[in-house]
Amino acid sequence: NLRMADEAPPRPANVEEDNDGRNLVERERRQGDVISPTRAVLTLSKSMFNAGCFSLPYAWKLGGLWMSFIMSFVICGFNWYGNHILVKSSQHLARKSERSALDYGHFAKKVCDYSDIRFLRNNSKAIMYVVNVTILVYQLGMCAVAILFISDNLAFLLPDVSTDRHSEMIAMASIVLVFIIATNMFTEMRVISFFALISSVFFILGAVVIMQFCVRQPSHHAELPFVTDFTGVVTMIGMAMYAFEGQTMILPVENKLETPEDFLAPFGVLPTTMVVCGAFMTAIGFYGYTAFGDAVMPTITTNVPSNGLYSTVSVFLMIQALLGHSIALYVVFDMFFNGFRRKFTNRFPNCSKFVVDKGFRLFWVLVTYLMAVLIPQLEIMIPLIGVTSGTLCALIYPPIFEMITFWTDWKSMLSHRERMIKISINCFVICIGTFCIVAGVYTNAVAIIGAFTKPA
């Protein structure tokens, strides 16, 4: 017996045990370009921490202090639920189709392929294209806004190169373009997660400088309204939904996680990320609004002095936006590159793989650059795309896809009452998502009309 024990093979590292030492379940471990749960949290958090967060104090002014405080947690909860059921459905279909992972578009296709509804099966590719276009427009818009953000801050720091603001912005964007191209040439999630780490450090530094200034101001909470009016609350909801910009990064990060089970675990990647992001966004909204009251500006950074220590805030936020561009555009590369490479190399078999890879990346970077310099008033038009596409990806698509994915399983595994509860919750989330889209369209349409009709 001792001899047999000595010759027994070592227990695999990916097998969990109970207190008696018996094997419970073998944990799936992906190989290759994978990241740890810690790096996954950093990458996902960075995708949600962007310039939109600094508009939250102004959003709270529109909605009222305590109504905005409550709605901040509600919005975070709905985003968490949508992301949770999205990953749960994706993992289920990946196992069912014997795939290691699915991006958002192929996930939508698999939902339809395995559906009992003939119309969905016959139009699965069309539905995949609709989802892909939704995500593509959203990501390109976010990247173009990042270029605008960096260009505006760079123009503030450097001497004037032109009396015309648009010409100056183009000059700054052209300078920035060189660095953006360089950061987008990397292909592995390991590198992208490292960029996310560095970007998060600079974002946190900038946010800490802003936050400590807000906290040190006299609080105006006693004189601020509990709630404003319906229009103000609707506007606040639309702006808060736009601040959660990381919906499209959920599946790319999950697909590269070394242990997929850790994504949805009680203290896993998604819950941790949502708690951190929800707490930060609530804090910056609350302290920013109570510090400046009705004097709070559309972006809290303009309420902070621009001299001394506070002058570094622009530099910190520029660096995080620069690295954030490559993180956002990674979604586009992840979704479209394999299909593009297959079709391109079939037509041009002698073309170098290196040229195909880098050329594809360069093309999409240049698209975001041209969007930034050619589309007038882009900075106020993109939130309209963000709040619609982002809400579709977070609150509309996931509950619809979950109901289609698990419809047959629910019939056999759940009682009628349990099934109706799940369906009711998902329908309620879809209604909330529809309301957020309507609110966002209304808010941004008013801003766009006002901007284009304003006298020069």
Automatic annotation (TrEMBL):
Its main location: membrane. The chain crosses the membrane at residues 58-81, 126-150, 170-187, 194-213, 225-244, 264-289, 309-333, 354-375, 381-404, 425-452. Residues 20-29 have a biased composition (Basic and acidic residues). Keywords: Membrane, Transmembrane, Transmembrane helix. It holds the Pfam family Aa_trans. It is a multi-pass membrane protein. The keyword Cell division does not apply. GO terms for cellular component: vacuolar membrane. It is found in: Membrane. Residues 1-29 are annotated as: Disordered. The keyword Cell cycle does not apply. This is Amino acid transporter transmembrane domain-containing protein. It comes from Pristionchus entomophagus. The lineage of its organism: Eukaryota, Metazoa, Ecdysozoa, Nematoda, Chromadorea.
